[in-house]
DNA sequence: AAAAATATCTACCTGCTAGTAGTTTTTACA
DNA sequence: TGTAAAAACTACTAGCAGGTAGATATTTTT
């Protein structure tokens, strides 16, 4: 799901060519999701009204209802970004990084850490507000999270089996790495002037040290 | 602030003796705070109604208003427990543990970790819902948090200065230890069948390893 | 045991918010 | 440029939730 947008207007651009209509719909959906994630991040899902979201975009409430079934559907879209992008990055690293287990661990922490920082507001909203999803959306999002956790756990177990990681850290380290997704935003924002690169490199070193794989 | 209560009724016990009235008031205040923290923890502050809280206690809404000024005041009481107990434990350890710096670090992680697990619901609500406090309450609670962070930072700096801790981990480790307060509840509940003791002992070892003070 | 004081409840108000019906504006196309 | 279709808006409803006034029940005191 692409979310980054560059224009700052919802006025339909005068473009020629076929099939740009669905693109423009997606563009507006993304603008809504982006604005909502920002507001939900700052004030919380239950404290934000749809009028708040509409105002932020200089549109009206019924506008939102022509792109989303209800308020909860907007939250579901945010949560989906929050977990699915991290999952996609994880799977990409696991599919393409074929070095040592410690190299794989470092790359996972680096790439997942980066996406969590890039999509900080989505990730935090996903964590904090997931409980307000409908039963169906909740199950769908939870499956993605379980897939994420499972693949992290497998990676760690393989490293332990190979002898590269200390035996006694399994399975806590798996929880720890999974915990990055919960923890980075708090940490990153509370560590003041540090750049994302500094924070991530520290996390990579910390993960290796915890795994006994320096 | 004492919060643990044993009775399961709000009916005034038939006790004799002077000055038990204020004790009974405190007892009821604690019951309200306890019930509210549980509901806020599970469903979120903004999604919980005062009727929910009252029902949980088998009383009515005006009952709550005779002990608290408004809904936000209940949240403030919860937040105060969430941070002030951790702060008290920290200060107690720092005042009485005079061994090596690594012994102090281990004891801080152990004792603060224990209180965070014991008061899990309060701590989580404090973190997640603090932004809904009034400006005055927010400032008051934030001061406690800053005091906590500051003392953790000092402890780490002293350990680094003494040579017991690795130089390059300062000041990230300070954020990490402070982050325990954010992180333990998620971790503890997602680590399945593990006992509080196991989780805490792992945290102590992890903190020492991160500090380079094993 | 009656009166005073305290504690709790019933019943209500007011403002807000998710969601909708139907009208108006804008766009696409001939 | 005129007409149909699509997009967006104005104006509304229904229900809920924080907060309160005044009545009732309970406890304490004399």
- Strand-residue proportion of chain A: under 5%
- Identify the CATH architecture of the domain at 75-210 in chain A: Orthogonal Bundle
Average pLDDT number of chain A:
87
Q: Helices and strands of chain A: which structural class?
A: mainly alpha
Main β sheet profile of chain A: none
Stated plainly, the CATH topology of the domain at 75-210 in chain A is called Tetracycline Repressor, domain 2
Helix content of chain A: over 70%
Q: What gyration radius of chain A follows from the Cα positions, in whole Å? A: 19 Å
Which properties best describe this structure?
about 70% helix; mainly alpha; Tetracycline Repressor, domain 2; DNA-binding; elongated; disordered N terminus; homodimer; about 210 residues
Outline the secondary-structure elements.
The structure is a homodimer.
Chain A: H1 20-43, H2 50-56, H3 61-65, H4 71-96, H5 101-118, H6 120-129, H7 135-162, H8 172-190, H9 196-210
Helix pairs in contact in A: 1-2, 1-4, 1-6, 4-5, 4-6, 4-7, 5-7, 5-8, 5-9, 6-8, 7-8, 8-9
Chain A binds a DNA duplex (30 and 30 nucleotides) through helix 3.
Written overview of the protein:
2 copies of one chain form a homodimer. By secondary structure, chain A is mostly helical. In chain A, α8 packs antiparallel against α9. Chain A has 9 helices and no strands. The first copy, chain A, has a domain of 136 residues: Tetracycline Repressor, domain 2, CATH 1.10.357. Helices cover 71% and strands 0% of the residues of chain A. Chains A and B meet through α8 and α9 of A and α8 and α9 of B. Chain A binds a DNA duplex (30 and 30 nucleotides) through α3.
